[in-house]
Amino acid sequence: MADDWKGYIRLCAIPEIGAVTAMRLLDRFGTPEAVFAASRRELLEVEKIGPKTADSIIDNRNAVDVEKICDRMNQLGAKYVSYKDPRYPRLLAEIPDMPVGFYQIGDCDLSKPCISIIGSRHCTVYGQVIARKFAAAFVRAGFTVVSGMARGIDSAAHIGALEAGGKTVAVLGCGADVIYPPENVELYKRIIENGAVISEFPLGTRADKQCFPIRNRIVSGLSVATLVVESDIRGGSMITARLAGEQGRDVFAIPGRIDSSSSRGCHALIRDGVTLASSPEDIIQSLSFSGQIEFALEGSTPAKESAPKAQSINLSGDEAAVFACFKNAESLGVDAISEASGLPVSKCLAALLMLEIKKILSKNPGGTWSCRR
Fold first, then answer.
1. Which site in 9, 44, 144, 283 is 20 to 30 Å from 115, CA atoms measured?
2. Separation CA 240–CA 300 (nearest Å)
């Protein structure tokens, strides 16, 4: 039914019901309506559902005003994406504690490959510069940048992606309609215009310290890789990095000064086996070689995925025209590419740079270019 998602909103708005508990109930009863219709005895038969949770379901099953929530969603231009919705991100559905659904404000295709950039709220200028630089490179290479819109590294990552004309997604530790921190009001608006803000928490939920660790699994869960720019040894980013590793995602860390507390977490991650990243290309190349991403020309029929985690990045415009020149040639110079593609040399050089970043072409010592794939 068209309004099935309203049942998920009702279920997840009940006190004592988190994502794992909600999924246990749905696995047992099938639908939110069946959960609400269950007796106390039937609820207590579900694994790890105790008297407190069962009573909360019974006491609150008619307490949630869904129509009021829908009115608020209409005012915001928000939508609710449940795990049954075809728009639900495939990567997010792979994590063991996936959210039943989430509110989304903004138009952004979350099935596109994402990289999360995270780090300390109390960051250095160096950390902010690095976050912006890497975010810009990632969106130019076709990725969506995911972060948490917190102060410091998160905000710098979103800004870097926006400045480069790319898409960025903010996963909030509060309701999708709550701007936190409040000074990020303009950033919040820009993210909605050029990406999306999402949250599994009910609309109106205020920011709370216990909410942030919960949302972190979504930040990493949406992404093929997570980059930690700066973090102290006990920073929240360390939780996200651990979650990313448990989810089977690639984790990278930026090295810093050995006497800086803001780099202790990154150095600990690198010591424990996380990949050191010295450039955006390090990460893009690693993902390409590991089969996490694959490339396809815009408008072409996607190849069948060779691995469950593989995602595609489309080439369009000048990149596609330049790449097509290598169909029947092993190596070409810029002038030959310009003549074959009909593009001016300046546009060819820009496209060649992006194709090199994406590890599709490589530059030869003599100044020619060859296809790597």
1. 9
2. 36
For the domain made up of 316-371, the CATH class stated in words is mainly alpha
Q: Is the pLDDT of residue 104 over 80?
A: yes
- Grouping H, G, I as helix, E, B as strand and the rest as coil, residue 168 is strand
Which residue ranges make up each domain of the chain? Answer: 4-64, 92-97+102-289, 316-371
Query: Half-sphere exposure (CA, 13 Å, Cβ side) for 3?
Result: 7
What phi and psi, each to the nearest 5 degrees, are found at residue 225?
Answer: -155, 155
* Helix, strand, or coil (residue 297): strand
DSSP result, 239-282: HHHHHHHHTT-EEEE----TT-GGGHHHHHHHHTTPEE-SSHHH
Residues 6+ apart with CB under 8 A from 353: none
Question: What DSSP designation does 235 have?
Answer: -
Pairing of strands 78-82, 369-371: unpaired
- Identity of residue 165: G
Q: Is the dihedral of CA 111, 115, 120, 125 positive or negative?
A: negative
Specify the DSSP class assigned to residue 172: -
**Residue 60, φ and ψ in degrees, nearest 5:** -115, 5
User: With contact defined as beta carbons under 8 Å apart, do 121 and 149 qualify?
Assistant: no
In the block, tokens 């270019």 appear at: 369
Alpha carbon distances (Å) from 315 to 32, 155, 280, 284, 291: 42, 28, 19, 15, 18
Rg of the Cα atoms in the chain: 23
Q: Cα–Cα distance between 131 and 119 in angstroms, integer? A: 9
Q: How far is CA 256 from each of CA 85, 134, 266, 267, 311, rounded to the nearest angstrom?
A: 42, 15, 8, 8, 31
| Residue pair 24/11 in contact by the 8 Å Cβ criterion | no
The predicted-structure confidence for 311-336, as pLDDT tens digits, reads as follows 556 676 888 889 889 888 888 999 89
According to CATH, what is the number of the domain 4-64?
A: 1.10.150.20
Q: Which residues on adjacent β-strands are paired with residue 295?
A: 313
The CATH architecture assigned to 92-97+102-289 reads 3-Layer(aba) Sandwich (3.40)
pTM listed for this prediction: 0.80
Q: How far apart are CA 174 and CA 259, in angstroms?
A: 34
Summarised one tens digit per residue, pLDDT across range 191-203 is 999 999 999 999 9
The structure tokens 């010592």 sit at 365
